[in-house]
Amino acid sequence: MAKLPRTMAVTLVSEWQAGDVRRFQDYLAGEEPLQVRVNGMPLTVTMRTPGTEDLELAAGWLFTEGIVQHRSEVQSIGYATDIKPTEQGNIVDVQLQPDVPLDTEGITRNFAATSGCGICGKGSIDTIRSRRLGRPNPAFRIDPQVLWNLPARLQEAQTVFGRTGGLHAAGLFTPEGELVVLREDIGRHNAVDKVVGWAMMQGSLPLSNYVLLVSGRGGFEIIQKAIVAGIPVLASVSAPSSLAVQLARELGLTLIGFLRGERCVVYSGEERLRPDFVRAQAAT
Predict the structure, then answer these.
(1) What average pLDDT does this structure show over 112-128?
(2) Is residue 65 part of a domain?
(3) Which domain holds residue 167?
(4) Can the peptide bond before residue 33 be classed as cis, meaning omega within 30 degrees of 0?
(5) Is 117 annotated as catalytic?
(6) Are residues 167 and 245 in the same domain?
């Protein structure tokens, strides 16, 4: 068998069905720790699906956590080389420009026990508010007929999920429903950070004219990351949390849950959807 990419592993399993048993080789989603070091200081370790998007994940995490504000603040980003052979590909080194401040004491305190979830180590929602996050593009509009097609397009593009069934996905779409970029990971927040990191390294932030669709639930950390990236519409195929809805309403994000078939639940920001759809929602 050809060597598998690190995004996947293979194992021998037994399947039991209606009294019959069969053994076969099954594919698993890869999972390894990734450490991010900034100016030589370890900041975080997150469990992720390893692969070519590690640098995007690190860049996106730095941006959504407010450590950097722009691609120009990053002098270099790459895999660490001064490490043990067993650590190869699992440590990313980031060097900031000399004039970029780095609050080492505050960062160490906030992220000592983080898993990259967006709020680990932070005391409350007030810490997020204190970053003065801006309201996403109020002029953005999308036709609900476009929304209905996004989950199928996301699933079609999930190559690793198709083999393993064990990954989350985040997809960035245009108002016309065109898939711009898709990233997969065992962590839904990691998938979002990869999309944001891709945009940051492309110089495409803020993402003020795009829709982000996530395959899991719309948790608070996902809302926070979307707002930081300037995304006006976030949709998920599952439910949001209460804190996610609160933050979306406070900061003007259009938050859509249970996007399945021609049905969805709009929790905030109905004004970005087509007017007749908004009236129909209000009537129900």
Answers:
(1) 48
(2) yes
(3) 144-283
(4) no
(5) yes
(6) yes
Handedness of CA 272, 277, 281, 283 (dihedral sign): positive
In this structure, the answer to whether residues 97 and 175 fall within a common structural domain is no
In the predicted structure, residue 3 carries a pLDDT above the cut 60: no
Which of 89, 123, 157 is the C-terminal boundary of a domain? 123
Query: Scanning the structure block, which residue is given the tokens 């895999």?
Result: 79
Residue 78 has pLDDT above 60, yes or no: yes
- The answer to whether residue 216 scores a pLDDT higher than 70 is yes
Give the separation between CA 266 and CA 5, rounded to whole angstroms: 39
Does residue 28 surpass a pLDDT of 50? yes
190 Cβ partners below 8 Å, 6+ apart?
46, 48, 49, 57, 116, 168
Q: Is there a contact between 202 and 73 (Cβ–Cβ < 8 Å)?
A: no
Do residues 67 and 196 make contact, with C-beta atoms less than 8 angstroms apart?
no
Least confident of 74-78, 257-261, 274-278: 274-278
* CATH for 265: 3.40.140.10
Domain-ending residue, one of 123, 153, 180 = 123
| Residue at 198 is within a domain | yes
Q: Are residues 174 and 241 in the same domain?
A: yes
Q: Are residues 106 and 200 in the same domain?
A: no
Give the single-character DSSP code of 45.
Answer: E
Does residue 8 sit within a domain? no
Instruction: Kindly state the average pLDDT of the residues 55-67.
Output: 94
| Number of domains present in the structure of the chain | 2
Q: The tokens 């590690």 sit on which residue? A: 54
The catalytic position among 34, 67, 94, 117 is: 117
Nearest CA to 172 among 56, 269, 74? 56
Do 276 and 152 belong together in one domain? yes
The residue type of 62 is: L
Tell me the residue type at 236: S
Instruction: Measure the CA–CA gap between 121 and 109, rounded to whole angstroms.
Output: 7
DSSP-assigned letter for residue 127: H
User: How many helices (H) and strands (E) would you count in the chain?
Assistant: 9, 12
Question: Does residue 10 belong to any structural domain of this protein?
Answer: no
